[in-house]
């Protein structure tokens, strides 16, 4: 990924957009539901996605899905089942063609693009199979740069980056370039970057797909610890062993979601 490509997952907010959003965020924070017990961080109601084609492809059939704040949920399915489509919707990288997506109480369907971008930057940290690190930047710079668009001063950005890298046990490799890091270490830099803005949701897209099983275990253990600390984790994977780490698994097949089959999850119609 080039530095330009990085803007796909890094926030790009105008001052105007930020001002609008602050007002909306304040209104939501004042709502009476804010105190009403365990809250849903994610709520999909009839959310579907049909790519226009031609020919049109119904990649995600209208689904309902609720993920509570602090949950660890795996979405598991084979190639072509609609995982990336769902990830792009959940990550506010794409808008659904039907239904309503509430993220932390915000109806994202009605939002302008600038607002969705702002919400994404505030609420969601991403980690991907291929790390997406900038090759010519140190670990600290890779993490710190994710905060550039949030108007955080450079010194503070670097301080946050160091803290997050220490959190994922990379305090001894702060100045290392990605090419000098192992695969597992690179993925931990990516996790540190995802955590920099204190997201509510960690959205993971096959984060161990490029790692050997030993290294994968270490990365998954880091994600377990983050979840134990209260972070909501949504793990997209085709690997049932990876999905087993979650509290709850949801299966996706041919664009249809089915509530999972293990670990304390009450079966629930999609
Ligand atoms: N832009 C697009 N236009 C048309 N069809 C698409 C588009 N993107 C995906 N599809 C189709 O939607 C379906 C779901 O694709 P998706 O990429 O979400 O699956 P996936 O589960 O992530 O697959 P993989 O694990 O192989 O990445 C597939 O049939 C795919 O061909």
Explain this structure to me?
This is Putative ABC transport system ATP-binding protein. Residues 42-269 form the ABC transporter domain. One of its GO terms (molecular function) is ATP binding. It comes from Glycomyces artemisiae. This protein is globular. It has helices at 15-29, 83-90, 113-123, 139-145, 154-167, 183-195, 213-228, 240-243; strands spanning 40-51, 57-68, 72-76, 98-103, 106-107, 124-128, 201-205, 232-237, 248-253, 256-259. With 270 residues, it is α/β, with parallel strands linked by helices. The strands form 2 sheets. A 6-stranded mixed β-sheet has the order 6-7-8-3-9-10, with helices on both faces. 33% of the residues lie in helices and 23% in strands. It has 8 helices and 10 strands. Mean pLDDT is 83; it is low at 1-35 and 261-270. The chain has one domain (5-259): Rossmann fold (3-Layer(aba) Sandwich). Adenosine-5'-triphosphate binds at residues 51, 57, 59, 77, 79-85, 238.
Task: Give keywords.
single chain, 270 residues, binds adenosine-5'-triphosphate, disordered N terminus, Rossmann fold
Task: Quickly give the structural class.
Answer: alpha/beta
CATH architecture: 3-Layer(aba) Sandwich
Count of distinct strands: 10
Instruction: Please give the radius of gyration in angstroms.
Output: 18 Å
């Amino acid at each position: 990924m080039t530095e330009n490509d990085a803007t796909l997952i890094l926030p790009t907010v105008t001052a105007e957009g930020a001002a609008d959003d602050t007002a909306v965020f304040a209104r939501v924070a004042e709502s009476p539901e804010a105190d009403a017990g365990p809250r849903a961080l994610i709520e999909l109601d009839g959310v579907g996605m049909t790519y226009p084609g031609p020919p049109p492809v119904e990649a995600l059939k209208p689904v309902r899905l609720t993920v509570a704040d602090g949950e660890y949920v795996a979405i598991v399915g084979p190639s072509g089942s609609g995982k990336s489509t769902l990830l792009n919707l959940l990550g506010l990288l794409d808008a659904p063609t039907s239904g309503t997506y509430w993220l932390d109480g915000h109806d994202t369907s009605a939002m302008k693009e600038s607002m969705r971008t702002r919400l994404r930057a505030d609420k969601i940290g991403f980690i991907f199979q291929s790390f997406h690190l900038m090759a010519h930047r140190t670990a600290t710079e890779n993490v710190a740069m994710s905060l550039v668009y949030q108007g955080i001063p450079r010194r503070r950005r670097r301080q946050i980056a160091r803290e997050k890298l220490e959190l994922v046990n990379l305090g001894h490799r702060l100045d290392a370039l990605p090419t000098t890091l192992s695969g597992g270490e690179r993925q931990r830099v990516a996790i540190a970057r995802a955590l920099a803005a204190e997201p509510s949701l960690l959205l993971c897209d096959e984060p161990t797909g490029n790692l050997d099983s030993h290294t994968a275990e270490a990365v998954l253990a880091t994600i377990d610890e983050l979840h134990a600390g209260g972070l909501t984790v949504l793990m997209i994977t085709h690997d049932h062993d990876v999905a087993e780490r979650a509290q709850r698994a949801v299966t996706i097949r041919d664009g249809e979601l089915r509530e999972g089959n293990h670990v304390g999850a009450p079966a629930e119609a999609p």
